[in-house]
Design brief:
With about 210 residues, the protein is of the alpha+beta class. Helices cover about 30% and strands about 10% of the residues. It has four helices and five strands. The strands form two sheets. It has a three-stranded antiparallel sheet. A two-stranded antiparallel sheet has the order 4-5. Helix 1 packs across helix 2. It is rod-shaped and about 125 Å long. It comes from Tetranychus urticae (Two-spotted spider mite).
Length: about 210
């Protein structure tokens, strides 16, 4: 007994006096592949297989059709000489087949990780399950927006430090650490204690476009 799904399907169809018909076409993309469809007269189902070469694509299509015959009760699983869960190489998305109730059951992808359990988007994942490739849920992850906000805060703090440094009198130690602010404050205290009225007089020094008071 053969362990090839294509030969097994030929043998089964021969006993039913039927002939499977294979049709193969190219799939364009980053990695060119072949898609094979197999049809059997009197059956509305179309087996589909995808692979990087025509022979393996036909084998996967035959495997898909045999799997359909098992679901329909036409073939006993114990009579199969091969494993139905193993497709030839990584054939990528296979198809969406019909289950026993007539509804569509997703069978896209293989165990290599491609397909609905991979990272193809939220439409292929169960509701509420995060994308495993989405690092926003990782502990300690900092997004772009948070990073930009932190950079802005750091720039403002640095600018403030520069402004304070410009107002600092580096020579204050020479004259007893007196500054304009504490001098004015102590002068007010002295004037109030001695009941002296202060009269400030302001005058400009320098040209009009760059004068100081």
């Amino acid at each position: 007994m053969t362990d090839n799904p294509k030969e097994f399907l030929y043998a089964w169809c021969g006993r039913q006096k039927l002939t499977p018909v294979y049709d193969t076409c190219n799939i364009t993309g980053r990695m060119p592949k072949f898609k094979c469809e197999v049809k059997v007269p009197s059956f509305a189902y179309v087996g589909i297989g995808i692979s990087t070469n025509k022979r393996d694509a036909a084998t996967n299509a035959a495997r898909d059709f045999v799997n359909y015959l098992i679901r329909e009760g036409k073939i006993e699983p114990s009579s199969l000489p091969f494993n139905m869960n193993e497709s030839v190489e990584s054939s990528g998305p296979a198809r969406s087949s019909m289950d026993e109730s007539g509804g569509a059951s997703a069978s896209y992808g293989t165990s290599s990780g491609f397909g609905p359990r991979g990272g193809f988007g939220s439409g292929y994942r169960p509701h509420g399950q995060p994308n495993p490739q989405d690092r926003r849920h990782d502990p300690g992850f900092i997004g772009i927006k948070e990073t930009l906000n932190q950079d802005y805060i750091d720039r403002v703090a640095q600018k403030r430090k520069f402004e304070e440094a410009e107002e600092l009198d580096v020579n204050s130690g020479i004259h007893g650490n007196w500054t304009l602010d504490n001098c004015k404050q102590q002068l007010h205290v002295f004037a109030q204690a001695n009941k002296i009225r202060l009269d400030y007089k302001y005058s400009s020094v320098g040209p009009d476009h760059n004068s100081i008071f």
